[in-house]
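Exercise 3.2. Students should predict the tertiary structure of the chain below and write it as structure tokens, then compare their answer with the key that follows.

Predict this chain's 3D structure.
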Amino acid sequence: MPREMSAGNPNAPVLSGSLSNALYRHAEQRCFAFFIYLFYVKILTERGNNLHNANLQAHDAVEHKATHQIDSGFRQPNQPHYYGFDDNDPNIVNQSATACGKMDAAHFCNLGIDSRYQNAFAQLGQNDAALNDYYENLKKICGDTRMLPQRINIGPDRVIDQLHAELAVRFLRAGGPPITRQNITTYCQEGIKRIAQYQATRGAGIVACAQRYADFYAAAQSEMWQSVSGSVAASCAAHGLPVTDYLSYV
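Answer key:
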């Protein structure tokens, strides 16, 4: 099934600033999107099973690459007011996050929905408005992006893409609530380890960029727990969902 593309909102603000700051916040947004993805996948599969006698397994719904994308990048490599990305320049992190000559719409989640589950959710949603709303929210999580240099999107971001693909299946296959302190700790620890492995054979510029991901993972585990758990608890309260199915405070 081809990736479903959607145009970006022309009135939406473009997040810029230094690449250093943008990558730190991008790592944060990626972590948040990952756990919210797990939340919606579990909601959808449980609702399908409990209310519609479907035979759905949450971990089987995971597609390892994005099936949806909002917005697209651009290529202006010969324009003098755009910079070229230098893998070996450690000061590249001080450049603007949005003024590179080759820009991509970089996914936050970069996970998708297995085609069989897309069909199942769409069919079930025809007669279940709540399930359809959850499905639309999941598609938005899958498709959400921000502008970053292409070299980031095919570099350190790809390391995190692979991390998401592996941990999503692991956490959902476990069967319990996917949002736990331990799962967030595991995510951050694995992120630090894999970024370090990636940095070992890269130029100083890419190393400096990748370090901003690791900086976030090392500093913000408690902050991320508060952010994700608060969002999930509020969503459960708003929709009358049993919070203990999705969130564990242990």
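Discussion points: The longest strand covers residues 102-107. Residues 18-236 form one domain.
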